[in-house]
Structures are given as structure tokens and as C-alpha cells.
Amino acid sequence: MSWFQSAVVYQIYPRSFADSDGDGIGDLRGIIERLDYLKHLGVDVVWLSPFYPSPQDDNGYDISDYQDVDPVFGTLADFDELSEGLHARGIKLVIDLVVNHTSDEHPWFRDPAKRDWYWWRETPPNDWRSFFSGPAWELDPVSGEYYLHLFSRKQPDLNWENPEVRKAIHTMMRWWLDRGVDGFRMDVINLISKDLAAGVYFNGPRMHEFLQEMHASVFADREGLLLVGEMPNVTVEQARLYTDPARRELDMVFQFEHVQIDQGPTSKWDLHAFELRALKETFGRWQTGLADVGWNSLYWNNHDQPRVVSRFGDDGEHRVAAAKMLGTVLHLHRGTPYVYQGEELGMTNTLFNTIEDFRDIESLNHYAEAVAAGASPDDVLLALRKMGRDNARTPMQWTSGAHAGFTEGEPWIPANPNHEWINAEAAVTDEGSVFHHYRRLIELRHQLPVIARGDFTMRLVDDERVYAFTRALEGEELLVLGNFSGDSMRIEIEGWTGAEAPLIGGPGLVLGPWEGKAFRRS
Ligand code: ISL
Q: What is the CATH number of the domain that holds 416?
């Protein structure tokens, strides 16, 4: 049994968490001031999104120096203080490792001697598109050659075929571990091996080799780390290989299937209706697929996804019930749950009136491209409002006061007006809040081995409204129910009577609108 099987991770997006100096952008000192809040919530690990020097073309996922802190976020001394403050509270610190690409302002990209650290070609060898719209090959007017960027043109892809690149990255990673960090969340790590001729950039031919080499060179003699790889387009069969402990690659991956069930196959902007059966199908397959080998990560939200209570729940009348139910369902699966800042408050998507209200390069580029291609601006806006990443990036809602208590200046993106009633100050003092529910879910995972390690069985597979599953470990059993509808109902589950001890919610197999329940017996 590994320590992370009973752990819960909390993600902080520093730009939007807490601003200590009034410049309108969150910073490391802002986080330091909120450590007791994290301790109160009870999380085991903090994953910190990028805080490194960066032109901020993609909010820090475009790094120009891997071994420093951007002045907008603070200093290395602040980082050390944050790391010590977390460790003093028994919380581990995992940092973001963004090594598929650097910023175009990284000295490596500017160094003529390091030309082969990136992908340069006299003519584009394929017709790859950037995830942020437009072609993935960019003409550099100075050299007359094209370079590859799967994200923005300010995010050139590193050439991992070059052993010097891999060595430099390993050295950088060891530097952070020596400084005290407890692991890495590896940004789009399954893009690092590419086959340009075959047109492959997901899960390319040398992926396992690169990860095993990294493990041997960086992690071999260290213990207690958390290594999680972000992997769009990963299948469960591939994830078994990536997360099999015997292969020494990663502890777990972030898969994307469940956050694509309301999107078309080729574009996240192609909106599809949410179907509960599709959610069960994907989660069920991942639970089964990683039952005997490997490990799941569990998430609804991160800085790239719209808020789950708005997306799969109800952010109106039943917001509190829906947010709690979504937490219950996710956290009682087998895997390591991730909580994204504000999820524990039931924070919702925000209001965007016009394109001017968006900040994210992905949204802005898509709008420009789609409208130029003839799409109706209103239709494009509709999709941006639902799927836009800025929904996740509005300021953390601390209080009902100005700018949600996030900053004393002007925030870089406005706070959601609903901070007047959705905020941490109110939630912490209300025993019935989403916050206290998440506290309890985290505590339960620490206490009950059946949550951390029990077998998983999906129940009511075809039901369109109720998510149901059981867990079992050494004679201990759990039944978990989530009502994904606004109707009250009575449930029948073979083998369960409703007389079992309620663990979450009241007795009996009846569910109120959007209610989640759990029962326990041994
Ligand atoms: O957001 C997305 C889909 O909703 C993805 O296309 C996203 O860009 C992809 O999951 C990769 O994400 C990661 O790398 C990007 C960065 O913009 C994201 O914030 C990061 O999580 C490039 O570094």
C-alpha cells in the first residue's frame, strides 16, 4: 500500500488564489497567509501550478526559467517559506513540471548552440494544428525556418530526442527535489515523444523509455514522492503501463475521458448534452482497468475545466446538495482525489457577457479563428461560456467583501458576483456547508481502508439519474448513491435494504434532489 492511496491533493492556481500585495494577481505570500485554511480542510498534498519566471502568455505554462520564481509571484525565499509552512503542517508540496515546451523567451530557445533542443524544419513536415488554434508550425522570419509549437507560438516544443535536453531537465528536477519538493505534476507529459513522419504526438514511440530513464535518473533513491502525469488521449490500457509500480514510470495519470463526455470528438467547443450513463461507462472502465495494477487519479476540476457543479450538477437552487453529491461520488471511488481551489466551496462558472470578459489565450484564439471562418459570434460565445478555462480561474472566494477578499487592488479577472453568498468565510462557520462536507470526505479516506483500497463495483449501470456503486474490503462494504437529478426518489439495490448504517446523509434508500448518500456495513 502506498501513502498516496489514502491521500487527497489540493490544487492551487497561484494567480487566482490570494493576492498579498494588491497588484491584482495572486502570489506565494498570499498562499502562505492561507495555510491554516488548507490544514483545516485536511488535505495531504498541495499541487502548485506554475510560479516560475514567464512572459505569462499561457498564465505561466510558458516558462522562461525553470529554477526561479516570477517576481509577480514572489521570490525563492517565499517559495522556501511556503514549502516549510506546508511541511510544518504535515502537507506535502508537488510542483508543476512543464517540459513538453518552454517559453520562446527561455535562453535555451535563444541559444544558437541549442538549435537542436527544439524542432526546427525548413518546411512544415506535417499539418499539425496547435491546441490553441492555428498551425503548429511557426515561421521564424530570422532563420527562415519553422519551429513546432503544439500550444501557443510562445510555447516551442522541446526536442526530447536530444539526450542533452533530457539531461538538463533531470538536473533541474533534482534541484527542486533537493530543495524539498515532494513530487511533480507533469504537464502534457505524454506529448514528449513524437514521431513527425508518422504524425504521432500522443503517447509516442519512446514515451515509456523516457519516463523510465527519468525515474532512474531522478527518483531512484527517493521515497514518499508523488508523480502524476497529465495525459490527454491516454487509454486505460496505456495507463496500466504508465502506472504499474513495477515499471517505475509514474504513480498515476490524469485521464480526460470523463471531461470530454459533453464535448464532440474533435473539438472541446462542440457542445454535447451530458449523459450520466456515459460518465458511469468511462469511470467504471477506468476503475476496472486499474483494479489489479496501477492506480487512478480522480478529479472533476482543475484550472482547465469549467466548474463541475455548473457542468454536471445544478448551480442554482440545489447548488449545495449537488456540490456535496459530486464530492461524495468522486471521493468514494478507488483512486487519489484532487480538489481544485474553490471546489470545496461549490464555486460555480462565472458570467461572461462579451469576448472582452475572457482572458485565456485558448478562448481568445478560438474566438478569433472561428469568427474569421464564418461562425456566428453568439454561437462561439455560447461554447466559450460553457467550456472556457477562465471559469476555473476567477478569484478564490474568501469573503463576501470587495473582489471576494482576493485582493485589495483590481483583480486580473473579476470575481464571480456570487461571492456575496459563496465564500470561505461563510462556509467555514456553517457546519452544513460544502466545505465541511469535503473535510469529512477527506477524513473518511484517511480513516476507512475500504475507501482507499476496497474493490469497486458499479451498480444501476443503465440508470439515467442515479450514480451507484459499492466498495468492499475484507468484509467491510460501502454503498454510494448520487442523485443526478432534481427529483426525489426511492432506490432499489440488490442486496441492500436501506437499514444499513448511514455514513453520509440520513437513513433509508431515498434521495432528495441532487442528494448523495453513503452506507456502510461489515
Ligand atoms: O484545456 C484543454 C482542454 O480543455 C487542453 O487542451 C489543455 O490545454 C491540455 O489539457 C493541456 O493542459 C496543460 O498544458 C497546457 C496548459 O495551457 C494547461 O493549462 C495545462 O494544464 C500547455 O502547457
A: 3.20.20.80
